[in-house]
Amino acid sequence: MVVVSVEIHVNGEQHRIEADLKTPLLYVLRNDLALNGPKYGCGLGECGACAILVDGRAVRSCTIPIAAVGKRHIVTLEGLARGDELHPVQRAFVEEAAAQCGYCLNGMIIATVALAARKPDANESDIRQALRHHLCRCGTHVEILAAVRRSLQNVRAEHLARAPDEEAGEQE
User: H helices of 3-140, where?
Assistant: First the structure.
């Protein structure tokens, strides 16, 4: 094991970490940065509990070594909200009471944020495809699917509400 100093960009902030380059990113996020959104589920990238966004794509942080991150932008569950205002996807999961134990929600929310950014008009098939590798052992799939549908509505509504402000800014 060779410990080196690594700089990573997480939730809009630069962090310098001392770690072995083979250390899974999940361990650095949880142990060094105290970010507990990503969960340790299976350690094999199978369950989705450890999902994070890397440059906007949902990835499994338990299978990515810290060496593979480089200067990429990482966003965890904690980085989605704007101050006290929840991200539209987080808000939808609360509104739909999509949690039972809550262990899988990190991955479900991260996968939904990535889907909403990539395809805000996603249909039922797209939603199921985006969540297909995320496991919920409590069986709250019906509520989770409802939350994802509402999430997409929230994201579209927020985008439409911002559009006039953005156009006004461009005309000035």
Answer: 25-27, 88-95, 105-118, 124-131
Token pair listed for 123: 């249909």
Alpha-carbon span 133 to 159, nearest angstrom? 28
- Using pLDDT thresholds of 50, 70 and 90, give the confidence band for residue 167: low
Contacts of 68 (CB under 8 A, 6+ apart): 25
Give the pair of three-digit tokens for residue 7: 């700089």
Average pLDDT, the chain: 91
Q: What are the residue boundaries of the structural domains of the chain, listed by start?
A: 3-79, 88-167
- The fold adopted by the segment(s) 3-79 is Ubiquitin-like (UB roll) (3.10.20)
18 - beta bridge partners? 5
Give the start-end residues of each E strand in 21-147.
51-54, 57-60, 73-75
Q: CA 42 to CA 48: how far, in whole Å?
A: 9
How open is the CA angle 137-22-136, to the nearest 5 degrees?
5
**DSSP conformation class of 104:** T
Instruction: Give the Cα separation of 16 and 88 in Å (integer).
Output: 30
Predicted confidence band of residue 24 (pLDDT cuts 50, 70, 90): very high
Separation CA 51–CA 135 (nearest Å): 12
Superfamily of domain 88-167: [2Fe-2S]-binding domain (1.10.150.120)
